[in-house]
Design a protein that fits this description.
The protein is mainly beta. The chain has one helix at residues 303-306, and strands at residues 17-21, 24-28, 30-35, 46-53, 57-61, 68-70, 74-75, 79-87, 96-104, 111-118, 133-138, 142-148, 154-161, 164-174, 179-184, 188-193, 202-204, 209-218, 223-233, 236-244, 259-266, 269-283, 317-323, 331-337, 343-350, 353-361. A 16-stranded antiparallel beta sheet has the order 16-15-14-13-12-11-26-25-24-23-22-21-20-19-18-17. It has a four-stranded antiparallel beta sheet with strand order 3-4-8-6, with no helix packed on it. The protein has a four-stranded antiparallel beta sheet with strand order 7-5-9-10, with no helix packed on it. Strand 1 and strand 2 (24-28) form a beta hairpin. The termini are far apart.
């Protein structure tokens, strides 16, 4: 009996076998090379399984047929297959598995079991069940509108304050080439490749960029830091640096940053603020956008972070307090929630002034 067994947790490297029967040599089995994506997130609705066959084969599904379907269940010998995987949005709030057994038709004692795992969180860090935020209105005269595609990816953001447009983005995704294009009414057209989380590698335009850097990634100490920098033309830029201790690399483990360092350079004037962060027990994962990005007000808000296009900059919980060296500048945050645990209102108070943001959903 020839048994080849492998379990696919995000990506699988499985085996091929050669067997000898009655002294007549033959080749049987298959090699499961990998899935296209190294991680399958809650909002990954399509993927590809790469299979190399050495004998004719058939595939049987053992579990997960209510959300995961293979686009091909049989094949010939000595061929290389790219098998479509079709999935539904994972709204269970946890990782879910789907198991398949592939058998050599001519030698049924040779088979392999693979498992595909779909995460409970989206590429953005929001849960797959997150409510879609359609608009936010602020008591300071700010307003934001949002749209999404069927994979919960942001396709539109318009941010204004007192009638002045601060950001206006239209985002399209080419899944065939894994390329996104951002039409920015202020900064022009920016493009980038993206991975399974739909996070842009680096958005580049004629004059402006949005870049993601990792100055610290210490696996042993579980410390991670990331910097997202948005250039704004004419030498202007803003940067957000988040430092995370107890960093867990599992895709469903979204952490909370210890600190935020914010730098804005505008018209030859540089502002820098370093804040120690404390968090409430309120989850930041039940709505599509990253509510914490409103901490410093819309004038200092990076629209790509608000859209949660960089998951490591998204904290798992809502910030409750942000402090620097001057206690008088302490920022406090309070929220109310809807029945589905999404944010209903968020009030940010600093220096005796407060702004209340009201979230509206579809």
């Amino acid at each position: 009996m020839k048994l080849v067994k492998a379990f696919m947790a995000m990506t699988t490297i499985a085996a091929m076998t050669t067997s000898c029967l009655n002294d007549d040599s033959y080749t049987s089995g298959f090699s499961v090379l990998q899935t296209r994506s190294s991680v399958i997130y809650a909002n990954n609705l399509q993927d590809t399984l790469y299979l190399q066959s050495y004998g004719p084969w058939s595939m049987k599904q053992n579990s997960g047929d209510d959300w995961c379907q293979m686009g091909m269940l049989t094949g010939r010998a000595n061929d290389l297959y790219a098998i479509p995987i079709n999935m539904t949005l994972n709204t269970t709030q946890k990782m879910r598995p789907s198991s398949f057994t592939i058998t050599d038709v001519d030698h049924t004692d040779t088979y392999i079991t693979i498992q595909i795992n779909q995460m409970g969180t989206c590429g953005s860090g929001a849960l797959g069940c997150a409510a879609k935020v359609r608009s936010i209105s602020g008591s300071d005269g700010s307003s934001m509108q949002f749209d999404y595609d069927n994979a919960m990816r942001p396709t539109k953001l318009k941010m204004t304050k007192d009638g002045t447009t601060l950001a206006s983005l239209r985002i399209t995704y080419d899944d065939r080439t894994a390329t996104m294009t951002v039409n920015d009414d202020i900064h022009g057209v920016l493009t980038s490749s993206f991975g399974p989380s739909f996070q842009p590698q680096e958005l580049v335009g004629d004059n402006d960029t949005v870049s993601y850097e990792v100055p610290i990634h210490d696996t042993y100490a579980q410390v991670y830091a990331c910097t997202i920098t948005q250039t704004l033309g004419h030498g202007n830029y803003r940067a957000h640096l988040y430092k995370i201790s107890n960093y867990n690399e599992h895709p469903d483990s979204i952490g909370n940053a210890d600190s935020l360092r914010y730098v804005r350079h505008l018209d030859n004037v540089t502002e820098t603020e370093k804040l120690a962060l404390a968090f409430s027990k309120t989850s930041n994962g039940y709505q599509t956008i990253d509510a914490n990005q409103l901490l410093l007000g819309v004038e200092h808000c990076n629209p790509y972070l608000l859209l949660s296009m960089y998951r490591n900059a998204r904290n798992a919980n809502i910030i409750s307090k942000a402090t620097n060296d001057n206690p008088a500048n302490t920022i406090t945050v309070s929220t109310t929630q809807n029945a589905d645990k999404s944010i209903s209102t968020m009030t940010v108070e600093r220096n005796g002034k407060d702004i209340t943001y009201t979230f509206n959903y579809e």
